[in-house]
Amino acid sequence: MSNDRTFSVSHFDLLDYVRTFPQADIAAEMAQGLAFRIDVGIQQASREIFKAVRQDLFDKGVDGLSELTIALRESDFAGQSFADCGIDTTNWVQQIGDLWTFREAAHNMAAELAPLTLDFRGQPLKYMIPDIEDVFMGEVKLKLNNDTRRRLVKNVERRAKALDMDEDIVKQVVAKKLERKEDRLKDIGITLEEQASAVYELFRQALLKSPHTAGDDFRFYQLDMQVQRTLIEQATTNAGRAEERAEDNRFISDAQADEISMFAIKAEKELKSVLKSDRFVTAARIAEAGTI
Question: How many C-beta neighbours within 10 Å does residue 55 have?
């Protein structure tokens, strides 16, 4: 199997890149990551619209925030409120429409590539395409990120050293602080689940406002540059995850694991080279200048 292939950086199409990648395990993992990140992007943009519409109604004195969350679950009210919203939601509507254009193709590709790889029982991997409503209505599980955990421990240890605290006390303080942060995340998760129906309804309304049609010849490189970057970075991350999966899978040979590792490096190098191209460097500089 040859490692040599070419692709356009100026008109880089991530879906084509993944679909034609010459190693099935890497391609399958990248496809799943891409499909997942598209759904996350749709949810995030929909939530921003929800917050904008609800805030607009609240500012107009329509009702309290909790009551508005419930009211926005209703299609007619959500549609009218969206239409009358005094906060600009154009960019979020655009993002939803853009990502929706690619969603079906991304999930279908993930479903097609998954059976070409083996799960941890040695069986072809199964991939179930999630219904978009289920994506919105799913249980929200938020976890402390490693940076938060590391900073918390560092701060407690610094204070312990300055105040000459006993080691057992330090462990108790760390445990209590972590527990409080985890409880806070649980509360946030419950709130997000309570808002899910309203967010989903505003997603539906945003899709109706999208300028795209089913027949559009819309390509990946026409997406917003930051959205492109996010999806490429996700594919890069998933290429590395395929290597990690291979390390733990006893149903593949050492030669297969070595091949996956080499192709993971290949994918990461190629995708990073795209992000280092003039298109992305220039876009990043423009975006940075716009925030000053």
Answer: 15
User: Is 31 a domain residue?
Assistant: yes
Task: Summarize pLDDT for 155-198 with one digit per residue, the tens.
Answer: 999 999 898 889 899 999 999 999 999 988 888 888 788 888 99
Going by C-alpha positions, the residue among 22, 17, 25 that lies closest to residue 240 is 25
Give the CA distances from residue 230 to residues 40, 195, 227, 235, in Å, rounded to whole numbers and listed in that order: 11, 25, 5, 9
Q: Where are the alpha helices (DSSP H) in 72-223?
A: 75-84, 90-113, 132-137, 146-163, 167-209
Name the pTM for this structure.
0.83
pLDDT reading at 261 higher than 80: yes
Given the structure tokens 């995708």, which residue do they identify? 271
Question: What is the number of helices (H) and of strands (E) in the chain?
Answer: 11, 0
The verdict on residue 2 lying in a domain is: no
Work out whether the CA dihedral 186, 47, 32, 139 comes out positive or negative.
positive
**Range of 125's domain?**
14-138+194-290
CB atoms within 10 A of CB 284: 14
Residues in the chain: 292
Question: Which of 36, 10, 31 lies closest to 117 in space, CA to CA?
Answer: 31
- Indicate whether 145 belongs to any domain: no
Cα angle 97, 100, 104 (rounded to 5 degrees) comes to 160
122 Cβ contact list (under 8 Å, min separation 6): 251
Q: How many CA atoms lie within 13 A of 98 on its CB side?
A: 19
Taking the C-alpha atoms of residue 54 and residue 66, their distance in angstroms, rounded to an integer, is 10
Domain tally, the chain: 1
286 in a domain, yes or no? Answer: yes
The residue assigned the tokens 């050293």 is 161
Q: Give dist(CA 246, CA 269) in Å, integer.
A: 19
Dump pLDDT digits (tens) for 214-242.
456 788 998 999 999 999 999 999 999 99
